[in-house]
Design goal:
The structure is a single chain. This protein is of the alpha/beta class and about 375 residues long. The protein is about 50% helix and about 15% strand. It has 16 helices and 15 strands. The strands form 3 sheets. The protein has a 7-stranded parallel beta sheet with strand order 3-2-1-4-5-6-7, with helices on both faces. It has a 6-stranded parallel beta sheet with strand order 10-9-8-11-13-15, sandwiched between helices. Strands 12-14 form a two-stranded parallel sheet. Strand 9, helix 10 and strand 10 form a beta-alpha-beta unit. The longest helix is centred in the C-terminal third of the chain and has 21 residues. It is elongated.
Length: about 375
């Protein structure tokens, strides 16, 4: 089977990471995946994996802009030469393009909803929810049913999955040492870490403010912030203003999350106000990191509270966040118990194999329906 994935870009992030893991896993099952996007930092990984990339200007947030229709025309030229069996859209713009191509070529298409969206005129006039719609969490499924009135029989609940063994395996000590040197982290320093886009909705500033009392309780603690975004300069200034700048490391985006997670003694999960799922949460669980998480995010909260993973604190509660971090840094037995429980949960519920089985079943269902019609 040949599947065309549509996404805005291939920069480091949850959606891009999900598409790559899914496409690589399906290729091992002898399916051919093609990714169409505006490109980005992960293009080299795509190339190394033997996955073809069609360069199409899909990196726009305006769903009915001329660029969207230009992208549909460009993809139509590709498809005339190389037909596909299924189109899989991962963004709103991708959904619009997929709907156009599906109508013209009679190709079934799937739309994965990776989060929550405000109903607007465009979505009411042209829902573009696909022949099948994948919801990545139960709150997202309820969002589709209640806010967008997608028929329940068309929705498939398929949470994200990851290669658990990749994250659970022992990290290469040499690679760890190189990374420690790169980030100026001592072996003896307790590391509090997070992986997040540096934007206001994530609340990284609250974590930085909570790190002040953490340092008072554990003076050698360091804070490692992995990720980038438009708020980085403001957050760096904040660390200086609070006097914790020398203990905070801004690592930027790193392509290999398993290695950096292995350095963290506590992982702090910072979901956005509306977070569809949270791939970094699964990665931390698979890496057997003790987790402190903010109780918000819709889908992310569903994962956390449903499984009883880690310590949860209320949004904007700086003292509560600091207290939970200090608790896990000081009580290593409790931290180990939480980490082991998180690992068992991710292995049972969120494996890559389970996710790929479910997505493959959706593709088979659509191709079978097309054949019978």
């Amino acid at each position: 089977m040949r599947i065309l994935h549509l996404t805005s870009h291939l920069n480091v992030g949850g959606v891009s990471g999900h598409i790559l893991c899914l496409t690589e896993a399906l290729s091992r099952r002898r399916h051919e995946g093609i990714i169409a996007s505006a490109g980005g930092e992960l293009e080299e990984r795509v190339r190394r994996a033997g996955i073809r990339h069609w360069d199409v200007p899909l990196h726009t947030s305006v769903e009915f802009s001329p660029a969207v229709f230009g992208s549909a025309l460009r993809l139509a030229q590709f498809l005339q030469r190389e037909p596909v069996d299924v189109i899989h859209a991962h963004t709103r713009v991708g959904q619009v393009v997929a709907a156009l191509l599906s109508c013209f070529f009679q190709i079934p298409y799937v739309a994965t909803w990776h989060g929550f969206f405000r109903p607007n005129l465009g979505r009411w006039l042209w829902p573009c929810t696909g022949d099948r719609t994948i919801a990545i969490s139960e709150p997202v499924r309820q969002h589709l049913l209640g806010d967008f009135h997608v028929p329940g029989e068309r929705i498939r609940l398929i949470p994200h999955g990851i290669d658990v063994e990749h994250f659970a395996s022992l990290a290469d000590p040499n690679a760890q040492q190189r990374l420690r040197q790169q980030l100026s982290l001592s072996v003896d320093d307790p590391v509090v870490g997070t992986m997040s886009r540096l934007v206001a909705s994530k609340g990284v500033d609250v974590l930085i403010r909570s790190f002040v009392p953490v340092r008072l309780a554990i003076p050698k603690a360091c804070l490692l912030i992995v990720g980038d975004g438009k708020d980085r300069a403001r957050l760096e200034r904040l660390t200086q203003d609070l006097g914790v700048g020398p203990a905070v490391r801004f690592a930027g985006t790193l392509p290999e999350s398993a290695s950096v997670l292995s350095l963290m003694d506590v992982f702090v999960f910072l979901p956005a106000v509306w977070e569809g799922f949270g791939l970094s949460l699964l990665e931390a669980m698979a890496s057997q990191r003790p987790i402190v998480a903010v109780r918000r995010g819709g889908g992310a909260q569903w994962v956390l509270e449903d499984a009883g993973v880690g310590l949860l604190v209320e949004p904007n509660d700086q003292q509560g966040l600091a207290g939970a971090i200090v608790q896990l840094l000081q009580d290593r037995q409790a931290a180990t118990r939480y980490a082991r429980h998180a690992y068992e949960v991710v292995k049972k519920r969120y494996s890559l194999t389970r996710m790929v089985d479910a997505v493959e079943a959706v593709y088979d269902e659509l191709v079978s329906e097309k054949g019978s019609s």
